[in-house]
Amino acid sequence: MKKGKVWTYLADITPLLEEEAYRKALEKVPDFRREKAQRLRFREDQAQSVGAWLLLTTARNELGASPEQPFNLSHSGRYVLATVGPEGEKAGCDIETVKRFHRETARRFFCPSEYDTIVNAEGEKQKELFYRFWVLKESFMKATRYGMVLGLDSFEIRLEEGREPVLMRQPEKVKEAYFFREFQTPGADARIAVCSTCRQILEPVWRRL
């Protein structure tokens, strides 16, 4: 694996919604992942769980990554995402299908400056900004390994036109410097964010499941 870079893989789980394809995919994942998927009620959720692990396996194999290297998985709608970082670094990722602007969620859980950035925008821009902040925040919480324990308003992100997002404030217990990159799916129907202590974050690589 090329050192000092964060790799992210992206795939569409639509093929796994078919029974035969799903059953074949199920045979390729470890027992714990198979059992987790089978406990889920809906086929889309099952396909996401299995597809995310298959994508991680593909990423590790192609990159020659070791189990010790940090990884993170995410899924939303028909997409699954897998991020693998260099050993000794931290990495997190998030993907969210763009739907509607959840104004009350932003007001209650985002920092005042982030909320103001959203509501001061016009029209569809509000929805875009909401999902940008959402995936950025999720990717940071996952990268730190604290998850939702941190709280969405315990750190502050600033967005500037033409620049990568900047972490303006972070929790005291999080000591490392973190870097972000944002992406969109080709149809712009989902937002992606990758966060890492490694500065070199590459664009997502598409793979078929």
For the termini, the CA-CA separation is: 21 Å
Number of helices: 6
Question: How does the overall form come out from the CA principal axes?
Answer: globular
Structural class: alpha+beta
Order of helices and strands: EHHHEEEHHHEEEEE
Residues in helix, %: 25-40%
Q: Work out the strand percent.
A: 15-25%
Largest sheet: 4 strands, mixed
pLDDT < 50 stretches = none
Rg, nearest Å: 17 Å
**Mean pLDDT score:** 95
Strand order of the largest sheet: 2-3-1-9
- Kindly state the number of beta strands: 9
Protein architecture, described:
The protein is of the alpha+beta class and 209 residues long. Helix content is 35%, strand content 22%. The radius of gyration is 17 Å and the shape is globular.
